[in-house]
Design brief:
Blueprint (H helix, E strand, L loop, with lengths): L1 H15 L4 H23 L15 H24 L3 H5 L2 H11 L9 H10 L13 H11 L1 H26 L10 H12 L12 H36 L33 H4 L1
Helix pairs in contact: 1-2, 1-3, 2-3, 3-5, 7-10, 8-9, 8-10
């Protein structure tokens, strides 16, 4: 029993701890396999029909796919082996991503509605394995969770605004007998395309008032994009600051706390944080 425990402990150091030399090498191998797999997927002549059981006519793509399949399979089973709770890992986000990364190498070509689209989409899920190597992804996830309610309400407001603007452009352009806006749905589609600054040009206002409204919608688009970005940025900065170590003592002059460990002066009043309290008095 001692040998398997030592083996599991050593493997856990390699698989789960990226700070060790062996862990860094392991992560580089898996990271490289992910990039190669996505590259091969993009260059496959028949990405919907190719699997590990049905090879392509391109030898180097088949070789890359087989190597990546071996790496992903080993990575998945190693995580199961070293995990304290294998079942919990299997049903976690990363566990399901690791499992699907292996599963969709074997999915054959299916010709039936929903399953076809699930299998087609599933093959690209292997790219989510990259999230494990991005530490900032956790900070982004925390920012999204802490602002989920605010962002949801904001997006709901944006949707309502699109409907109102779509109706406005429909009414305004209805005075033109050759209008392109035959329904309110056309107007809503135009409002979404215009506000996101995409501007396909398939629906174009012809009246002066319609063009004025289009200009307003374009300007609104900048704010629509900037607001959620600002929310996530502020939340990310707060989370980063909260995780930074701080000095326990307060400033003797203003009483402010929460200074960085490497700070030598108060960031509020500028008083030296190392000054003797008795001398200050």
């Amino acid at each position: 029993m001692a040998v398997p425990r030592r083996l599991r402990s050593r493997l856990r150091t390699v698989v789960l701890e990226a700070g060790t030399p062996a862990g860094k090498l392991y992560n580089i191998i898996v990271f490289g396999a992910i990039l190669l797999s996505v590259l091969a997927l993009m260059l496959e002549p028949d990405p919907f029909g190719n699997t590990a059981l049905r090879q392509t006519n391109v030898a180097w793509i088949d070789a890359i796919q087989n190597i990546c399949l071996a790496v992903f399979s080993a990575d998945f089973f190693l995580h199961l082996y070293v995990s304290e709770r294998p079942k919990r890992y299997f049903f976690s986000f990363y566990g399901l991503v690791d499992f699907t990364a292996v599963l969709f190498f074997f999915v054959p070509q299916v010709r039936s509605e929903i399953l076809l689209w699930v299998f087609k989409f599933g093959r690209i899920l292997r790219v989510f394995k990259l999230l494990r190597f991005v530490d900032e992804a956790r900070g982004m996830g925390q920012a999204l969770r802490s602002n989920a309610r605010t962002i949801a309400v904001y997006l709901f407001f944006v949707v309502m605004l699109q409907v109102v603007l779509g109706y406005f452009i429909f009414v305004i352009e209805s005075v033109n007998p050759d209008t392109q806006f035959k329904t309110v749905a056309n107007g809503v589609y135009w409002a979404i395309v215009t506000m996101t600054t995409v501007g396909y040009g398939d629906y174009v206002p012809q009246t002066s008032l319609g063009r004025l409204l289009a200009s307003v919608v374009m300007l609104l688009g900048f704010g629509i994009i900037a607001i959620p970005t600002g929310l996530l940025t502020v939340s990310g900065l707060k989370d980063h600051q909260s995780r930074q170590a701080v000095r326990p003592e307060a400033c003797v002059a203003c009483g402010r706390r929460g200074h960085r460990v490497d700070a030598s002066h108060c960031d509020h009043c500028g008083t030296s944080l190392d000054v003797d309290v008795a001398a200050e008095l």
